[in-house]
Design goal:
two-stranded antiparallel ribbon; 4 helices; alpha+beta; 4 strands
C-alpha cells in the first residue's frame, strides 16, 4: 500500500468528521451504480450505514489526523463506453471511472 502524506497544517483546516456528515454524503450518492475497484457497491453502505457508521467515522478521522491516505482511495478503473458512430474513432467514446466506495 502506498500512503500519501498530508501537510501538517491541513488537518487543522478540516477537523473531525461526524456521523451526520457521513450520512449526508451517502444519502446523496446514487445506489444503482457499479461497484468500484474495491468491489464494494455503494448500495451496501447505504443499506447498512447505521451499522457501519462508527467504523466509517473512525476510519475517516484516523486518516485525516494521520495525514496518511491509502493508495486504494486514489485508484480508479477507467472504462471507455462506446456512444455511436465509427468504433475506431476515439471521439465516439466516453469514459466512466469506477472509484472505491470509501
Amino acid at each position: 500500500m502506498v500512503i500519501y502524506p498530508m501537510r501538517e497544517h491541513d488537518y487543522d483546516l478540516v477537523g473531525d468528521v461526524n456521523g451526520q456528515e457521513i450520512k449526508s454524503i451517502f444519502k446523496n450518492l446514487k445506489g444503482g451504480t457499479a461497484a468500484g475497484v474495491d468491489g464494494i457497491p455503494i448500495l451496501l453502505f447505504k443499506n447498512f450505514l447505521s451499522i457501519l457508521m462508527p467504523i466509517i467515522v473512525l476510519l475517516c478521522n484516523k486518516v485525516l489526523r494521520s495525514g496518511q491516505w491509502p493508495s486504494a482511495w486514489k485508484t480508479s478503473l477507467f472504462i471507455p463506453l462506446f456512444k455511436r458512430g465509427n468504433p475506431k474513432a476515439h471521439e465516439n467514446y466516453r469514459l466512466i471511472a469506477l472509484v472505491p466506495a470509501l
